[in-house]
Design a protein that fits this description.
Subcellular location: Cell membrane; Membrane
CATH superfamily of the domain at 19-92: CD59
Shape: elongated
Transmembrane segments: 108-128
Structural class: alpha+beta
Number of helices: 2
Largest sheet: 5 strands, antiparallel
Number of strands: 7
CATH architecture of the domain at 19-92: Ribbon
Helix content: 25-40%
Strand order of the largest sheet: 2-5-4-7-6
CATH topology of the domain at 19-92: CD59
Membrane topology: Lipid-anchor; GPI-anchor
Pfam family, one: Toxin_TOLIP
Protein name: Lymphocyte antigen 6D
Length: 131
């Protein structure tokens, strides 16, 4: 039993924590770049741009859990164009154009999930018979 628990602990340490996404996080009237490590829950780097003819340009970059790409065209003189770009690679939101398509899983996420499920199955086998 102690050997199995030691093996479980070694496997958990070898897996290490999930690597956090890095995105540019800033707000400016032009393209801005300020790298930051995102929270573990953030899966996307997002860039939102707004072009307001009467108020000027606004570029906002951040880390988000969910992101929906969007493009809108001006409808009136006071309403400008807007766009939301989403990507999932480190520092992929450096440009005001989409630099990488969004993927469903980050690299290594499948391996981490498989390892976690394997560890849970091993733990269930070890603890199950003693219940």
């Amino acid at each position: 039993m102690k050997t199995a628990l030691l093996l479980l602990a070694v496997l958990a340490m070898a897996a290490g924590p999930a690597r956090a996404l890095r995105c540019h996080v800033c707000s400016s009237s032009s393209n801005c770049e300020k790298a930051q490590t995102c929270a573990a829950s953030a899966r996307y780097c997002r860039t939102r741009t707004k072009v307001e003819p009467l108020r000027g340009n606004l570029v906002e970059k951040d880390c988000v859990e969910a992101c929906t790409p969007m493009h809108s065209l001006p409808g009136q003189v006071s309403s400008g164009a807007a766009a939301t770009l989403c990507c999932q690679d480190d520092l992929c939101n450096w440009s005001l154009q989409s630099s990488a398509p969004a993927r469903t899983l980050r690299p290594g996420a499948g391996l981490g999930l498989a390892l976690a499920l394997g560890l849970l199955a091993l733990l269930a086998l070890l603890v199950g018979p003693s219940l």
